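Sample log: MerR family transcriptional regulator.
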Amino acid sequence: MNMAEFSKQAEVSAHTLRYYEKIGLLPSISRNASGHRVYGSKDLVWIEFIKRLKDTAMPLKDILKYSELRKQGASTRALRQLLLEKHLEDVKKHITQQQSHLGAIEAKIKLYVIGKVA
């Protein structure tokens, strides 16, 4: 698919796709005879994973590190796993923190409901 179709399907702007390609997150994008980018289903799976990492606050430098390890192949599997395990712990810590904040906000709302807050 072309960039416009891919951008729409992936819900990522064309500018972002070009940026990701420039910094190495999308290193193997094919080009047609006219030189236009051609994206495939594997590219969509990869961009969805990048978005998930971003949405869970993985720093771009870590996403780039993961991407570089991925390009190096199966020999980096253990390193990629470690990187994701560390990120998993960060995500769990963030969820716990957000649950605590949620509880505090809910408690404050209850005070309004029962009329104990001026």
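Observation: The radius of gyration is 20 Å.
Observation: The domain at 3-114 is CATH 1.10.1660.10 (Multidrug-efflux Transporter Regulator; Chain: A; Domain 2).
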